[in-house]
Design brief:
The chain is an alpha/beta fold. About 45% of the residues lie in helices and about 15% in strands. The protein folds into two domains: about 5-135 and about 265-315, 3-Layer(aba) Sandwich (D-Maltodextrin-Binding Protein, domain 2); about 135-265 and about 325-350, D-Maltodextrin-Binding Protein, domain 2. It contains 15 helices and ten strands. It binds fe (iii) ion.
Amino acid sequence: MTARLSQRLCTLTGIAAASLVISLATFALPAHAAADEVTLYTTREAGLIQPLLTAFTAQTGVKVNTVFVKDGLLERVKAEGARSPADVLMTVDIGNLVDLVDGGVTQPLKSPVMDAAVPANLRGTDGQWYALSMRARVLYADKKLPISSFRYEDLADPKYKGKVCIRAGQHPYNTALVAAMIAHDGAAKTEQWLRGVKANLARKATGGDRDVARDILGGICDIGIANSYYVGQMKNAKEGSDARKWGDAIKVIRPTFAGKNGGTHVNISGAALAKNAPNRANAAKLMEFLVSDSAQAFYAETNYEYPVRRGVALEPVIGETIGELKADPLPIIEIAKYRKQASALIDKVGFDQ
Ligand code: FE
């Protein structure tokens, strides 16, 4: 955590502690005070989320019971049914959020605060889910290459034959990108495009996003597609470390779709109010806290993500290397509708074979 940010979170803590003392001194504790809590189920890493939750408790006095769920969030909440203690469900990837809604474990959150903070294309129509942060699917390129702009369609250009690195097509990051391509260009063109990208691969579509930078440094490929926050992780890594070398070998370009909409493909992390939330008011408080200026700055500075709230500064390396995001204006929920079709196309062209 940066000094500036921890100072900001500490200030929040101080103010909250002071106001808590005042309220305790002034009013008798209500009978339900012991239940002033909220239960969060999250698939996100503890290291990222815990400092935010600590600041939330300090600011509001609401205790957070956190359950870190690695896999099977939907199945778990479904199995718990009406007795589920979950108030807020937090996860990564639009597909996972839509699955929670389709699985019937969410309910609409009516919150003008959330609606004001989260742009309409980054939330469910009736408050069934909200994005909390964004990540862009960007181009990593050998920094010696003379390219300064790129369209996703260019990945299939024969001039990049044997020069493209990417992780598995069936990984949710890529399935979402292919779904966006279908939303823009239709299934037939997308299939053709996928075949072209497959033909351009320098190696099997496998590994992780940072391996794209590693393999550019290793001379295996010239370009590749990966998420924006890994750039912050790599370029901020310790001087002399492998990750730092990979990060320093690349430049980053925000690709756009060739058609009328000029935006870059983004995915999200987000949260939803659980269907059987026992603590709805505190759930709303927690979600509203997560889109506040200080929490959004934390997402940016600690995890190198793009804030969903306007006016929140980017982490400096992300700001310098990638810059402000012009996100694809298509509602992300429209893109998510094509996930299954995208996955089928990826299989059809044998992308991961
Ligand atoms: Fe990731």
